[in-house]
Amino acid sequence: MPLEAGLLQILACPACHAPLEDKSADETPELLCTGQDCALAYPVRDGIPVLLVDEARRPA
């Protein structure tokens, strides 16, 4: 289930406050931080973004 465009516009990375980008694949929906130094990937579970730094992963 994709996130609403209005919601995506106001969400920001909790670690660096950069905008988030929807990089959802069918099997692993996630939001990717656009910050150059941060670049954390936050999971989306049941259509709800989990914006906890402890739950985020660093993309390869």
From TrEMBL:
Stored InterPro entries: Trm112-like (IPR005651)
Pfam families: Trm112p
Ranges in coiled-coil conformation: none
Family: Belongs to the UPF0434 family.
HAMAP family noted in UniProt: UPF0434
The name this protein goes by in its record: UPF0434 protein AVW11_34200
